[in-house]
Each structure stands twice: as C-alpha cells, then as structure tokens.
Amino acid sequence: MTVTAPVTRKRSALTKGQLPSYAPWVVLAVALVLGAAILALVGFNVFGWGVVSALLFTVGLVAWSGMVEGARKAKDKLATCLVVGAFLVALLPLVSVIWTVLVNGIPGIITPGFLGTSMNGVTGTFDNKSVEEGTRVLGGVYHALIGTVQITLLATVISVPVGLLTAIYLVEYGEDRPLARAITFFVDVMTGIPSIVAGLFAAAFFFAVVGPGTKTGAVAAVALSVLMIPVVVRSSEEMLKIVPNELREASYALGVRKWRTILKVVIPTAISGIASGVTLAIARVIGETAPILVTAGFATTINNNVFGGWMASLPTFIYTQILNPTSPSNPAPSDQRAWGAALVLIILVMLLNLAARLIARIFAPKAGR
Amino acid sequence: MSKRIDVKDLNVYYGNFLAVEGVNINIDAKSVTAFIGPSGCGKSTFLRTLNRMHEVLPGARVEGEVLLDGDNLYGPGVDPVTVRTQVGMVFQRPNPFPTMSIRDNVLAGVKLNNKKISKGEADTLVERSLQGANLWNEVKDRLDKPGSGLSGGQQQRLCIARAIAVEPQVILMDEPCSALDPISTLAVEDLINELKDQYTVVIVTHNMQQAARVSDKTAFFNIAGTGKPGKLIEFADTSTIFNNPSQKATEDYVSGRFG
Amino acid sequence: MLKVDVTTNSLTTSQGAGRAGDKVFSGAALTAGCLILAVLFGVALFLVVQAIPAFVAPAADIQGGQGFFAYIWPIVLGTLIAALIALVIATPVAIGVALFISHYAPRRLASGLGYVIDLLAAIPSVVYGAWGAAFLAKEIAPAYDWLADNMGWLPIFQGPASATGKTILTAGIVLSVMVLPIITSLSREIFLQTPKLHEEAALALGATRWEMIKMAVLPFGRPGIISAVMLGLGRALGETMAVALVLSSGVLTASLIQSGNQTIAAEIALNFPEASGLKVNTLIAAGLVLFVITLAVNMVARWIITKHKEFSGAN
Q: How many CB atoms lie within 10 A of CB A336?
C-alpha cells in the first residue's frame, strides 16, 4: 500500500485563471486613494469622493478581470458592480431624507410647547421678533396632530368595514363570478387613483350634496377612504385566502352556519394579518397631503369637530408653512415648524409600520406546546 | 342515539360531471361501515353527500335521496346546517382550530353556534367528549394550551372529540388515519371500535387491513376509467367482502391485483 | 322504506334566525363589494358633472382666456415630462435594486434589505417635497449651471439655469425616488418567481451569474417589469406634493433646468384651496383629465399582469 502525500499546491487547478480573492479589496483601496486625489484637485467633498471612487473601482475591477479572466467574467463583474451600485444609489435619498428631517426637525420638536400648542394667534410679528431678537419660536402642531388623528380615525372607521366585507365577499362568496372578477379588477384600478383626484371626488361629492364650498374633516376622511379601501381589500383578501379550507369544512361539519364560520373561525385565524394590513393602510394615508388640501381647508386653531369647520392636519401644516410662511419676510420660524411637523409625521408613520410588524408577529396563531 | 342511513338512487355531480352514479345502500345504526376502493372512485365524494358537505364546493349537487331514519337529507326545506349537527365528520388531515385552546376546540360546535352553556355543563361536556375520544388522560392538564400543539394522532382524536361533543347520530370519517403514524392509527382504530356502541360510524379508507380490522360491513366502490362515474360495486359483511366476494372486481381489488 | 311527508321531516325544523344571519351577512358582503364599484363610478360621475361647466363655458372665462383646451394641454405635457423623467431615472435603478435583493444579496439579508427599500415608500410625499425644495434643489443647482454651460446646445439643457434649482428636472428626480419602491417591489416579486429549473439549467451550462440573469430571469420577468413601470408611471403622473413644493412653475418650456412647466396635480393643489366659481370647475375638469390618463395607464398595467399570470402559472 502506498501512502500518497497530500497534494500541496498553492492554487487549485479549479481556480486557475481567476482573480485572487483579495482583488476587489486591492482595487477598492486604489480607487479610494485615487478618488481622494482627484477630488483634492477640484475641491474635496464626501459625496463626490464616493461617486468617483465607485466609478474608478468599477472600471478598475472590470479591466483587471477582462485581462485575467476574459470578457465573459468581466461582463459578469460589471453587472455585479452596476447592481450593487443601483442599490447604493437607492439608499442615498433615503439616508438624505431622514438626515435632512432629523437635522432640521429636532430644533422644532424640542421647542417647548411645540406638541402642545396650536397656531392660534401666532402671527408674522411673533416670527419676526423671534428672528430679530432670538426669542423662542411660538406656535406648534397640536391642532394639526388632532386633525390628522381625527381625519385618519374616521377614514379607518369607514374603510375597514367596507374593505373587510368586500374581501370576505371576494374570498367566501365570490366563487369567481363575473361580479367578483369585476370588483377585483376595479379594486386594482382604484389603487392607482391619484390622491388628488380622490380629494377632488370627495370635494365634488360634498359640493353637490351638501353645498358648494363644503370643507370639513369628514370630507377629507371620505377622500382618504377612497385611497384606503383598496389597500384594505387587497391585504385582507390575501390573508383570508391563506386560511386553510380545512378549517372552514371542520366548522361546517360541526353544523355551524357560514356567517358564523367566517366570523368565528376564518377571521380570528387571519386577524393578525388583517390588522397588520389595516395598520399599513393607515400608515399610507396618514401622510397624504393633496386630498386633505382640497377637502379640509386650512386652520390655525384647534377644531375638535370632524363634521364642521376647516381642519388642519400634519401634512397640510407642513405644506402651508413652507409655501406660505407665517411671516413672509422671515420664513425661518415657519421652516422650523414645518420640519418639526415633518419629523413628527415620519415618527408616526414609522411607528405604524413597526406596529404592523409587531401585530403580525404577536397575534399570529401559535403552535406552542 | 344513533340513526340508520338509507341511500336511494343517488347521483353526485360536480357541475355537469357525473362523479358517482346510482348508489343504493342501507347502513345500520350502531355499526361501522367501511368504504374501500381505488383512488378517484368517488368514495370520499359519496361520503360527503351523507352530511351535505359535498355542496360546499361550488357547482356540486346531487340527485336522489339520502334518508336519515326516514328523513330525506335533500328534502325541500331541509337546512344543511341541521343535517350536519346530526351527521358529524372527521377529515383526512387533523384540523383543530389554531386560534382555540384544546378545551375551546372541543366546545367549538357549541360555542360557534352561540348556544348558552354553563361552565359546569361545559366542563362535563369537555371531559365526556375527550374521554370518549380516548384523549382525556393525555391532555387533562393542558386544556388551555393551543390544540395545534398536539401530535398528529392526538390532534385527530381531538377532532373526533370535537365531532362527538355536538352529539351527532352518525360520524363520518374521511380517511382519518392516512396522515398518521402506525401507533396513532392504532389508537384511532381502537376508538372507532368503541364509538360504534353509541354512534353509526362510516369510514372511508384506502387501507384494506384497516377496513377488515374496524368495520362490520364493507362497501367496495370502483371506477370504469378516467372521466367515468364511480359506482358502488358490492356491499356486504366485511368478512364476505374479503373472503368470499361475489364480484370479480371486488376479488381482484381485495386480493391486491389492482388499485 | 316509509315514504316521508315533507311536513313531518324532522330535519326541516331548523332555527330560522341562523338562516337570516346567513342572508344578512352575505348581503352585507355583497353590498360592500358593490359599494366599491359605486364609488369608482361615483368618482367618475361627480368629476364629470362638476367638470361640465368648464367644458361648456365661453373660452374667455377660462383662465388664460383661450378655452379649456388651451389651458389644459401645457399642463398635460408638463405632467408627462415630469413622469417621464422619473421613469427614465427610476427604472434602471429599480431593476438593479430588485436584482440585488433577489439574486445578489445574501439570503439572510435579502428580506431586511427589501424592508429598507419599502421604507422609501413609507415616507410621506410632503416630506419628499420638503426635502426636494430645501435640500435637493439647492445642492443640484450648480450641476444645472454646468449642464447649461457645457450641454446648452441640447434644447432640454438650454440655459440660463435656474439659480434656485426649482426646476422640472428636480421635481422629476424627487418623483423618481417616490416611484422607485413601487417598481422595485413588483420586479423583485417577479424575479423571485423565476423557475428555479431555468436558473439551474443556465448555471449548469457554465453561465456566469449575469448570463444566467440575462438568459432566465430577465426574459421571464419582462412582462412583470413592464407592468411595474406602468404602475410607477401611474403614481408619478398623479403625485402632487413633490411637484407642488419643488417646482417653481410657469409656462411650458422645453428646457428642463429652467423654472417653468406645471403638472395637473400640482396645478390643482396650488389653486384649488383659493378657487371659487368657474375656476373650481376648471380645476375639477383638470382632475378628470388626470383621472382618465392614470386610469388608462393603470388598466393597461393590470391587464398585462393578468394576462401574464394566466399563462405563466405563477401564483
């Protein structure tokens, strides 16, 4: 019996003609140094350095790969660079938006009284004074926060029953009838209605029914419902569909009626998904600006009545503070309030998104022993 | 509390497709009847017509009569829901309600129908049903745990307990052991033997040994070919079907020559 | 066997209340479904009714004094220009991101990365608008100067560039960020549905990852990408805030780096709150035009998806 010594080779035959595994790091280091050098010539900034280095890295790696590995591998490397690059490019605005809102919003949000006061009585004079004499910026988002909560709640109260019942019709009663197919199609189409058109619809509807110029929180809630219903229908439909048919049959076989089966077996099984879908739908409409702009008007005071009078909301507050500053000559205080409100709005939306994930996880049917 | 079933000239359709044709069968009260036959012969389809579960599927319908102690299940004005409270069903795969505890699963038939029941009565019913399903000793300490946490065989017996808690006359079982391991299968078969003291049991099985072990009478269904309707070929005492069948097809099937 | 009289059938004596419950419940579900159709029909109807005065009014009474058509076509064009810019930028990036998540990123990271991209969709449009107006426009203005100086011979980059950067191109870039998550998530789903067998067949032939994507993933996903882009187009056409806040609007101009141009949605948002009389009808009519355009785009997109689903066997 001969004992063969283990083959000791620096590189396997299978890796011949390939770039060494450290190649990308070498190219990256060179690209970063070169990028910094080039940027130093024209004036250094981090963003430009990143872009130039990324370009140099791509060119360098692809060229090296082309020389060592051939055109096919080089093309593969190029595609990888482009795909990863696309992802990084997509992250830029996300990071930039969140950074901008944080930097500009924090001064607003930490101003005492920002969350607790409205804009009632806050005029350009106060803003001019705060700019000229450095006094505290007055006014806050309380009225807008109240308005957003009320309008969104009413929209939810309208949308959830309609959306959920429609989903139930589609899944439990539709049986692929023409009507069910028409509803599915138009729900899809409805998801694409521009939000401003939904606002115009609600406005036109109330102008025609109640009287021209009717602008209240309720009109805005109807507009938001038009946007919210299709989202609720689609997510609830998906959730109801994944409830196993066996559970329905088990319930029928116990002599339970269809409507009680749906209410007591199907919906409880799907409730976590439905609730999380509804929460996401709320998160989607809570930031809508355009429909509220044309339906609820603007208000600077607290209005607790959804059904009467103009009403403020966070998004429209941001919009008006930026576009029509309280003091046209000194827009800085208005900007500060707008960014503060934007931060509040983003925190609200993120919390809702987080809540949706938590609901989906916590209330899912458990299989614990 | 158990009733006999008499089926007269029953045709079962899915839409325009005739799935089962011309079944006549008389099932005695307090007996175990097994349906055997090759896959797709319509035995499960036929079973589901005995408590009107068949029509849950879109486009499904029947012609003919199914008499439960003389009352036609398909008579005018008969509510399928009432039928199902008298004829319970256990399915191929165990399907306890995942949102309910073991206790609530047993009480499902009562609670889902919104019947008022005192706590004492409920406790008695839960214990009696679980005892009846030979499951009480295994789960009595964790009645509030989810039913889906049990093993497959325990889940299936939980489903049987759930079915007998509504006190039906007849229990239909659609291949109740096909998703279970041999030990769980044995437990369920033992249970079936005990159930016939009180209930009329009809069981569909693709396992001939099982049919021989648990049933008093056996019905053999067969199908002439794809797209043809399934038919009841022979119905007799189990020992006759397995030892001395009168039909050639039955003999071929039970001796393992096809299917 | 005894012949049973119907009236003596013990099974017919059932609780009537339960049956009524079934009827009420299925009726309610059906009503809700029909309500949705009614709402969509209502959207169209009320917009038409309120828009008619603008169509029939004497030309001189409409803003601009030359009738509704002369009023609407520049802003329709502006809407299309902004949406087109958004798509040209967003589509390649979105496909790249979708490929990254579906085929490049490590499995464990993929869903988390998908969530990060979905965060882009969660940010309210007014925040994008504020960001575009306060940050992006300022930062990008020097680039417009450079474009005007070096590529000014192209009509779309004709100078002088806007000093504030509040141009239709900036608005288009902001829009592209907003439609990116839509195109990404749909494309990603389609890419993930590529039959594993096709991918493995390509890899087994010795294809590189990129060749596999070109051979198996992209051809399979093409209808999905097209409909995703259409849906993104629908969103870009109807988006209001990004344009209303970012664009310093004006008359229709070919140059993308000067202030000017306007979109329907922004026109409505900027003018509706203070509008009265015929102006309201004119704006609602503009909304109707926008509704028809987006409806057509969305229906085509949905039609492509449905057609694709039928023969691919996906889902």
A: 22
Q: Could you give the C-alpha distances from A349 to A315, B26, B66, B145, in angstroms and in order? A: 12, 65, 59, 36
Q: Whose CA is closest to C124, among C168, C177, C169?
A: C177
Residue keyed to tokens 């012949």: C3
Q: Note whether C16 contacts B: Cβ–Cβ < 8 A.
A: no
Q: Could you tell me which residues come within 8 angstroms of residue B248 by beta carbon, excluding any fewer than 6 positions away? A: none
Q: Which residues of A touch B95 (CB under 8 A)?
A: 244, 246-247, 249-250
- Which residues does chain C have within 8 Å of residue B76's beta carbon, measured at their own beta carbons? 6, 12
A47-61, A338-352, B226-240: segment of lowest average pLDDT? A47-61
Quick: pLDDT tens for C216-238: 888 888 888 888 898 889 889 98
- Please enumerate in sequence order all residues whose Cβ is within 8 A of that of C133, keeping only pairs 6 or more positions apart, or say none: A322, C166, C245, C246
Name the band, by pLDDT with cuts 50, 70 and 90, for residue A9.
low
**What residues contact residue A243 under an 8 Å CB cut-off, 6+ apart?**
A266, A269, A270
Mean pLDDT of the region C117-126: 86
Q: Is B225 strand, coil or helix?
A: coil
Asked if the model's pLDDT at residue B174 lies above 60, the reply is yes
Q: Are A312 and A319 in contact (CB under 8 A)?
A: no
Distance CA B68, CA A5 (A): 83
A306 shares contact with chain C (CB less than 8 Å)? no
Report the candidate in C178, A253, A368 with the shortest Cα–Cα distance to residue B165: A253
Domain A142-363 CATH superfamily: MetI-like (1.10.3720.10)
* Domain boundaries defined on chain A: 19-109, 142-363
Mean pLDDT over residues A139-168, rounded?
92
Residue of B nearest to C21 (CA): B113
- What integer pLDDT is reported at residue C312 of this predicted model? 47
Residue window 34-73, chain A: list those with CB within 8 Å of chain C.
72-73
Give the integer Cα–Cα distance in Å for A218 and A216: 5
Tokens of C116: 């990060």
What is the separation of C-alpha A32 from the centre of its chain, rounded to a whole number of angstroms? 34
Contact residues on chain B for C18, CB-CB shorter than 8 A: 81, 113
Distance from CA of A124 to the nearest CA of C (A): 21
